[in-house]
Design goal:
8-stranded mixed β-sheet, alpha+beta, 25 strands, single chain, 3 domains, 17% strand
Length: 799
């Protein structure tokens, strides 16, 4: 029986090739979009779940100051970056902890093997217990001892290949920063793409203990991340309840608070600041999930509209079948078989489309998607499920519509009887275009917000700024003044300054005490820029009180401090000028505050401007030289600067980047979101147009004789097109009214991720509505114009 049903369904598909193609194409594109979005969402929510013990791994969040845990740790108070001594103390005081691992923030190191020399950007120091806590695959070497001894380094597979090719690197030596030699004790596989960790190699923590042993007893020194593995059956809530007493017994500093986060929450759910790796957006996951559902619904509606639009052609077929004794159940099975056949063909085609589009999606999303991970049992099961469920859901309504035709009425009149389905079909079109208009408006809002980020005044000048990264090379540090002078002699170099970091890069916190208006010393932890006297003028940062550092004041090198507006407010000064002359104490220095700079966005616009101290730097902490160059002949200037650098610092490669390019990389995730949103919104609108085409086809065929009579009576082509189109335009106007609040609410939630955000203008919805109407008119005109220019004799021949 089913073979018979599918045979007839196959013949019907061949007989109506155009509409079969539209039906299958619409469903296939919709399923492919849904499949790709589902794959993206599954990838996002799978972060760190490759760890076999992920459900027992937690990490410590630290708050330096008065803090209260309300739900999840907030970024205003808590950060993942913390101190070292808490690790050993927790292992001693909490027997529930099976293993604990700490690692530092990553640092750049110049690695050399033979004549191969590269600067690797992300290399932290890490405890030897790392491979017992995390499921990182060791390809060579002993995971239990690889990070146990000083001067040991474990390389990731991709980094090892740069230096050793296909050779086993274990046992070989690498020269680090032209100073020390490290032994390669392990080769590990590259981190999975769904890991929130991001490093190129690992250096043993025992190496760090030899370099800075004192910090392992200093609760105020911050440069560590602490993760731990609970024993089976242990409760994290039990440890959390005992933490206040734990902190009080070990750390006498007032206001220090801790909280815990599960490893599986690190990527999408963490709100704490100073993360050790990339974080995702749960809002974006929700938005894309909604878009996937929207697209799938639109594709299903298309199928319904296109099926019912062609039902007139099958009215006589239904009448003949009923006259031959086929009951309604048999007809429903027949039409559901056709629906399933179309849906399964579309499902198979969607897999092909999705696999072909995967490289594009990977590029637009910035993810490392591979065909190997895509073609999994889960994806194949999802494709079959899509095919069956969509086929059944999309085919139920057309099947019941066609099976309800009365045989006598159909065979006597040759017409499809009215069955009251017009209102439903119109409602479906309203639903489709409500979603489509919301997506059009959402696309516009995303684009406007991304433009706003790019055009926002950051408060400093990043144009034509070339940043030379010398990685803290001690030779360069000792000669930084003369090197700056040598570089400034080039006619294309307008200015030069040295600093530990530049805008957009990682900054440390510095415990700082500043005299309050009442005369007492207040202790706080602002972020810290370590700079020379040229940094503020060269970056064109505005002073709003006091003065910048100057060579004319010898005390500036050791007894002066500059803060930003937010920093002044942190210490209780709402008027920046009032903090000038106040005493300060910071990292062994004492003196007075000499200036306040206007708040500038030294970090991503996802974050408000934070309190900042700008400290005159000792040369031994400098890492960057920033050069402002002329805009003409940039390539030749860079060639010349490389030659100069090779003369003054031959031991260090000439590594540079343009500040505007590196700063904008902070918004790569937003740009990826915008690219994907625009792509899927465009495809959703395209699919919706197919649904509108179906309904316009149905309506035009219903009114074929009316159109013929109107033409005989003198109606113009334009008048007939307007007659057919106006009803659809009314539906679009209804869709606009419904779409506005939906889109406004959804995009407002997305914009809440940005402290610097646009206001949603009513003009956005007006523009989106006009675009939707134009798209609808163009879609409808195809059928209405064809009907208007047709010979009325053909439509009236039977009358």
């Amino acid at each position: 029986m089913f073979r018979h049903f599918f045979k007839i369904a196959y013949r019907n598909l061949l007989r109506r090739k155009v509409y079969s193609l539209i039906n299958i194409a619409g469903l296939a594109i919709g399923m492919a979009c849904c499949l790709l979005i589902t794959y993206y969402v599954l990838h996002e929510i799978s972060y760190d779940r490759y760890n076999t013990k992920a459900d027992r791994i937690y990490r410590v969040a630290h708050a330096y100051g008065e803090a209260e845990i309300k739900g999840k740790p907030s970024p205003e108070e808590f950060q993942i970056w913390g101190n070292a001594p808490i690790g050993a103390a927790m292992v001693t005081d909490f027997p529930e902890i099976e293993k604990l691992v700490q690692f530092t923030s990553p640092n750049p190191y110049l690695l050399q093997y033979g004549d191969k020399r590269f600067q690797e950007e992300n290399i932290p120091f890490m405890d030897s217990s790392a491979f017992e806590v995390f499921s990182w695959k060791m390809l060579a070497g002993d995971p239990h001892t690889a990070l146990k001894f000083p001067n040991s380094i474990v390389l990731t597979k991709s980094i090892a290949q740069k230096y050793f090719g296909k050779e086993n690197p274990v046992g070989k030596s690498l020269k680090v920063d032209n100073r020390v030699t490290y032994t390669v004790t392990g080769l590990m596989d590259d981190l999975p793409s769904n890991s929130h960790f991001n490093f190129d190699a690992l250096i043993s923590m025992t190496t760090f203990r030899q370099i800075r042993p004192e910090v392992f007893g200093e609760w105020g020194y911050i440069d560590f991340y602490t993760y731990f593995l609970l024993k089976k059956g242990s409760s994290i809530e039990s440890i959390q309840k005992r933490m206040p007493a734990f902190v009080k017994s070990h750390n006498k500093e007032i206001g220090y608070t801790t909280a815990f986060e599960p490893l599986t929450s690190a990527y999408l759910h963490s709100r704490a600041a100073r993360q050790p790796g990339p974080t995702g957006s749960l809002t974006n996951v929700y938005i894309f999930s909604c878009v996937a559902v929207f697209i799938l619904l639109i594709a299903c509606i298309n199928f319904i509209n296109l099926s019912t639009a062609r039902s007139m052609e099958r009215a006589k077929e239904v009448g003949v079948r009923k006259a031959m004794g086929v009951n309604n159940v048999g007809l429903i099975r027949q039409f559901l078989s056709e629906s399933l056949l179309i849906s399964l063909i579309a499902a198979i085609l969607s897999l092909v489309i999705a696999s072909l589009a995967l490289p594009l999606i990977a590029e637009l999303s910035g993810k490392s998607f591979t065909s190997t991970s895509f073609f999994s049992l889960k994806i194949f099961a999802l494709v079959i499920l899509f095919g069956l469920v969509i086929g059944l859901l999309s085919g139920i309504y057309p099947a019941f519509v066609l099976s309800r035709f009365q045989a006598i009425q159909v065979l006597k009149s040759g017409k499809m009887p009215s069955i009251g389905g017009v209102s439903l079909r119109k409602a479906l079109v309203v639903f489709q275009f409500t979603l489509s208009i919301a997506l059009i408006a959402g696309t516009a809002i995303v684009s406007y917000q991304l433009d706003h980020i790019r055009q926002h005044d950051l408060g400093f000048n990043q144009e034509q700024m070339v940043v030379i990264d010398f990685g803290g090379d001690n030779v360069v540090q000792s000669q930084v003044a003369s090197i700056k002078h040598r570089l400034k002699q080039h006619p294309a170099v307008l200015s030069a300054t040295a600093s530990r970091a530049v805008p957009g890069e990682f900054l440390p916190n510095a415990y700082t005490e500043i005299q309050s208006a009442q005369g007492e010393m207040l202790g706080r932890g602002p972020l810290l820029y370590e700079i020379d006297e040229d940094f503020i003028p060269d970056y064109k940062i505005k002073m709003i009180a006091g003065r910048p550092y100057s060579r004319e004041f010898t005390s500036d090198t050791m007894k002066s401090l500059i803060v930003n507006e937010a920093g002044a407010k942190l210490f209780g000064y709402t008027k920046p000028a009032d903090i000038i002359g106040r005493k300060f104490s910071q990292w062994g220095r004492e003196g007075v505050v000499i200036g306040v700079v206007k708040d500038f966005n030294f970090r991503s616009l996802h974050q408000p401007v934070e309190p900042l101290a700008l400290r005159f730097s000792e040369s031994y902490v400098l890492n960057r030289i920033s050069l402002r160059i002329k805009a003409d002949h940039v390539n030749q200037t860079l060639v010349d600067l490389r030659k100069i650098w090779n003369e003054v610092a031959p031991q260090r490669p000439f590594l540079y980047h343009f500040l505007d390019e590196s700063f904008s990389k902070q918004y790569d995730a937003d740009q990826h979101f915008g690219n994907l949103f625009r792509l899927f919104a465009g495809l959703a609108i395209l699919i919706a147009c197919l649904g509108l085409f179906g309904l316009s086809t149905f309506t035009t065929e219903q009114r074929t004789k009316e159109i013929g009579i109107r033409k005989v009576l003198g109606s113009s082509v334009q008048g007939i097109v307007v007659l057919i189109s106006k009803d659809f335009v009314k539906l679009i106007l209804i869709s606009i009214v419904i779409a506005i609040p939906i889109c406004w609410y959804g995009m407002s939630q997305w914009l809440n991720n940005f402290p610097y955000r646009i206001d949603i203008s009513p003009l956005v919805f007006l523009q989106s509505g006009v675009i939707a109407i134009l798209i609808a008119i163009i879609t409808i005109s195809w059928q209405s114009i064809a009907a208007a220019i047709a010979n009325p004799v053909d439509s009236l021949r039977d009358e």
